[in-house]
Specification:
The protein is α+β, with helices and mostly antiparallel strands. It has a domain of 48 residues. It is 21% helix and 12% strand. Strands 1-3-2 form a three-stranded antiparallel beta sheet, with no helix packed on it. The longest helix is centred in the last third of the chain and has 10 residues. It is extended.
Amino acid sequence: MTTSRRARPQPKTATATPHTAPTAAETVLHTNLTLLEVADPLLLEELRADRRLGPLLVAQLSNRVAVVKAGASEGLIRALLRAGHTPKVVNP
């Protein structure tokens, strides 16, 4: 004999709302923007703290992505190479 079990009611908690696309008034499109993406969030923290590299990173978008200062992408690549990193450059 099989019996069906009723699901126990779950306590009410705050639930996340699904992400909705921003409206046209909230959308900002940036062109010619250079981003730096790292595999390890700790590496981005170290790069931002570096006295040579930090000033070239003007905003942090996530724990792994930062915006590079306008016109500083070549300088950032050279500085990363001098610091022993091996950047992968992707051009769209």
